[in-house]
Amino acid sequence: MQQTLTLYLQLPLFRRLKRNALFIMFIVHLLLYLLTLPVIMSLSDDDDISYHRSPLLLNTQGGLNTQNGEVEPAVKALEARQDEIMRKLYELKAAVEGLAKTVTTPDADLDLTVSSSSSLSSQSPTSTTFRGTTDLDALLGKDLGALRDIVINANPAQPPLTLLVLHSVLCQRYRVLSTVHVHSSASSVPPQLLSCLGPRHPDSYARQMFQLGFTLIWKDVPKLQMKFSVQNMCPVEGEANVARFLFKLLSPYPSDPAVATLVDSWVDTAFFQLAEGSSKERATVLRALNAALGRNPWLAGPEFSLADIACYCCVLQSASASSAPTNVQRWIKACENLGHFGPAKLYLK
């Protein structure tokens, strides 16, 4: 069924209809037909399929039809078939909701879907304790019956290593349904970026089993974009801002305004000077890092923070690690010992 749907999506006609509500309705009806046809064909003419228990299951007194005090095998079989249909319809409803969100997002108008879902990551355990709550309702507000989708458009020429690291940490804390897609505007994507979120999870078809959806779309965009509330179309631009949003799902920002400002300052320094600055600017930042790390084990004080994640990734991405001063070299090793940075190091290899 998945292969058939993929072939339909690659036809020119359906590429033009992707933003049309009729396309979504077509997908819904096609999936319903393909999913329920084998079960319906296996039923007899007397079977009554509905969203409620079949009348065949009840006798004239309103109880279950029994044979010697036990439910008849035919009735049991029919009940099992109806339960299976209801289970598949529920899963299909969740899948179509996710598909509709993707199709109705202009920046996620996909022409080619490649690698797929991962999650419930089996990353190595870490010694860092994030103190934030794991209750997403408390963090994001209640959203009954829908998977909270984080959709990120990123340019493969500028892979967001910070977000890959944060994704791996999110997978340790939440049940995350992770998906990688390629937009037609991205001419070539390295293989390691197609699998940057890990292998397909065996339960990826059952969206209701997950707490977060993390969709990464490789696309030719000038600046990284994130849409969390797809219906309201509220984009967040820039890797630094998206990293701040994701980190708050793991741990609250420091309550001390001075420490919070220090974290933000290091994050901005990482992306504007380490990642995009000249060699002279990078050398200046490395000296500042060395001085700060001579006073504290981490950049914002005694605790690991987003500042460490952002600066570590930008130091590696700018190829400045080999020429870093002593305190920075020690800090790099301390970061790597935490086990969070496997995705970033894997890409750089």
How would you portray this structure in words?
Residues 276-337 form the Glutathione S-transferase C-terminal domain. It holds the Pfam family GST_C. It is found in: Cytoplasm, Cytosol; Nucleus. The protein has 349 residues and is an alpha/beta fold. The protein has 13 helices and 7 strands.
In short:
This protein is an alpha/beta fold and 349 residues long. It has helices at 2-9, 12-16, 21-41, 73-103, 136-140, 161-173, 191-194, 239-248, 257-274, 279-295, 306-317, 326-338, 342-348, and strands at 66-67, 70-71, 148-154, 176-182, 212-218, 225-227, 235-237.
Features of the shown structure:
349 residues; Glutathione S-transferase Yfyf (Class Pi), Chain A, domain 2; 3 domains; two-stranded antiparallel sheet; alpha/beta; 13 helices; 5-stranded mixed β-sheet
The third-level CATH topology of the largest domain is Glutathione S-transferase Yfyf (Class Pi), Chain A, domain 2
Q: Which CATH class of the largest domain applies here?
A: Mainly Alpha
Shape: elongated
Percentage of residues in helical conformation: 40-55%
The largest sheet is:
5 strands, mixed
- Give the mean pLDDT: 73
Compressed to H and E, one letter per element, the order equals HHHEEHHEHEHEEEHHHHHH
Share of β-strand residues:
5-15%
Uncertain regions: pLDDT < 50 for 5+ in a row? 39-58, 108-127
- Distance from first to last alpha carbon: 37 Å
The CATH architecture category of the largest domain equals Up-down Bundle
Radius of gyration: 25 Å
Backbone structural class: alpha/beta
Transmembrane segments: 21-43
Protein name: Aminoacyl tRNA synthetase complex interacting multifunctional protein 2
Organism: Gasterosteus aculeatus aculeatus (three-spined stickleback)
Keywords: Cytoplasm, Membrane, Nucleus, Protein biosynthesis, Transmembrane, Transmembrane helix
